[in-house]
Automatic annotation (TrEMBL):
InterPro entries: Ald_DH/histidinol_DH, Ald_DH_C, Ald_DH_CS_GLU, Ald_DH_N, Aldehyde_DH_dom. Keywords: Oxidoreductase. The active site is at 253. This is Aldehyde dehydrogenase family protein.
Length: 485
């Protein structure tokens, strides 16, 4: 493991606009969730800085567009190579700043490295069409970049989200201004420094700050396309603000309250492994949009599944994110830890039974929340309806497929769902019956790049991780050419 102290000593957060550091900004501390201690003072972009960043991006965009796919591909592949060289540093910044264990953050960076190659490789395949209206003329469509695209992302996978967010608009010929979450700004700022060595100035800019900086970006007159990852409340605020400023394209990757439905024929040990894997404890202490948070277990196997999950959860003792062997890290902030603890208290207060908690870590200062397994949860309880975004899972018992589907769908969210059974007929009934954008059969949590990821209902608008995502970062121009007088 790279030495955390070495990485910490080199942290020097700054906003670069067209390669130049912005001076005179207010700074706020970012905190190490493993200790609660301040890590670094981070600049807060005011409206004037956001405006400078967007204008620099707009100035850089035409030349970037005119490089064409081969030119952009060369530079983005070179950026991928530079990111590969810095992957340990980026992962350690995320472990220090966000509290997720270093191995998980390294795996995050490593699993998106291919995107520096594959996105540019498929950008030339986005197409456009020749429309056979009149054989004497020519009717065709072209994809044209928007100009400057704004990307605003959440805190749970900082470097991964920054990389995943910047590439699709960039390969389509847009420049990008990205705002990371205020809790975890360091890896994105470092990424911008690395990018500065490879990409033309202004093509990729990172501005830090919170809601105010995000709102300045959303409302900026030169921004016509916004891609957002975060909570439903912020997604709604962005839709409203975008609509109030101009006609803008907005895509939203929002929260989830994800259900896993277990049939009595599913193997208990595999189900228990999947429940724990679906909680994403080792990668982000459950702070993932796609985490399993409601497990509907058929009454015939209920007791066996609960006992098997209980055994597994007890192994997850939270610890410091950048120490070897840490099973799971802290939550991102004291406020979020208190929020999650509030849900645990609410569940107990409403009559759910706590079956297991991972042991208390006995460390002071950090924002640790051991994992919690709730049994005897009823659909009306808050822990069964609201997104907790932490290491808490609820078990609900079922006996009728119609009823369990109705209960699984009785939330405002619709991101992911899973069904566990060997019975293909039942599996397909649940797949078709679940109101979600992504479904697993005998699987959980995994993303398959090339499969469209996104939510229905309040979980979002639009799909990512597929060729169609690229097309959303361009507008269609229909060209009608008469070839005769
Ligand atoms: P958040 O909505 O609080 O913040 C997300 C980003 O929006 C941050 O960068 C924040 O500074 C910015 N922001 C806040 N107010 C804004 C405003 N008014 N205008 C513009 N930007 C603003 O979310 P969070 O707490 O960072 O992340 C947790 C949420 O994100 C959860 O609900 C989770 O499910 C969701 N999430 C969804 C996905 C997905 O792919 N569907 C992935 C990760 C996280």
């Amino acid at each position: 493991m790279i030495d955390p102290q070495d990485v910490r000593d080199r942290i020097a957060p700054r906003i670069l606009v067209a390669g130049e550091p912005v001076a005179g900004l207010r700074h706020v501390p970012t905190v190490d969730p493993s200790t609660g201690a301040p890590l670094a003072d981070v600049p807060v972009a005011d409206a004037a800085t956001v405006d400078r960043a967007v204008r620099a991006a707009a100035a850089a965009q035409p030349a970037w567009r005119d490089l064409g796919v081969p030119g952009r591909r060369r530079l983005l592949e070179a950026l991928g190579a530079a990111v590969r060289e810095h992957r340990h540093e980026l992962a350690m910044l995320d472990a220090l700043d966000g509290g997720n264990p270093f191995p998980a953050m390294l795996s995050d960076v490593e699993r998106c490295l291919h995107q520096f190659v594959t996105w540019p490789a498929v950008a030339g395949m986005t197409g456009g069409a020749t429309i056979p209206i009149d054989p004497r003329d020519l009717h065709f469509t072209e994809y044209e970049p928007f100009g400057v695209v704004a990307r605003i992302v959440a805190y749970n996978h900082p470097a991964y989200f920054a990389i995943k967010a910047m590439l699709p608009p960039l390969v389509m010929g847009n420049s990008v201004v990205l705002k990371p979450a205020e809790q975890t700004p360091l890896s994105a700022l470092r990424l911008a420094e690395i990018a500065q060595e490879v990409l033309p100035p202004g093509v990729f800019t990172v501005v830090t700050g919170g809601a105010e900086a995000g709102a300045a970006l959303v409302g900026h007159p030169l921004i016509r396309r916004i891609g957002f990852t975060g909570s439903v409340a912020t997604g709604l605020a962005i839709q409203r603000a975008a609509a109030a400023s101009a006609v803008k394209h907005v895509s939203l990757e929002l929260g989830g309250k994800n259900a896993m439905i277990v049939f009595p024929d599913a193997p208990v040990e595999a189900v228990a492994d999947a429940v724990v894997a679906g909680m994403n404890l080792d990668s982000c202490a459950g702070q993932s949009c796609g985490s399993t948070s409601r497990v509907f277990v058929h009454e015939d196997v209920h007791d066996a599944v609960v006992a098997a999950v209980e055994q597994r959860i007890a192994r997850f003792v939270p610890g410091v994110a950048y120490v070897d062997g840490t099973a799971m890290g802290p939550l991102v902030s004291a406020a979020h830890r208190d929020r999650v603890a509030g849900y645990v208290a609410a569940g107990r207060g409403e009559g759910a039974r706590i079956v297991a908690t991972g042991a208390d870590p006995g460390l002071s200062g950090g924002f640790f929340q051991p994992p919690v397994l709730f049994d005897r949860v009823e659909p009306h309880m808050r822990i069964a309806r609201e997104e907790i975004f932490g290491p808490v899972v609820s078990v609900l018992r079922w006996s009728s497929v119609d009823t369990v589907l109705a209960q699984a769908n009785a939330v405002d969210y619709g991101l992911t769902g899973a069904v566990w059974t060997n019975d293909l007929r039942q599996a397909m009934r649940v797949v078709r019956g679940l109101h979600t954008g992504y479904v697993w059969v005998n699987d959980v949590s995994r993303h398959y790049w090339g499969q469209p990821f996104g939510g229905v209902k309040d979980s979002g608008l639009g799909r990512e991780e597929t060729l169609d995502e690229l097309r959303t970062y361009a507008e269609v121009k229909a060209v009608n050419m008469r070839t005769r007088w």
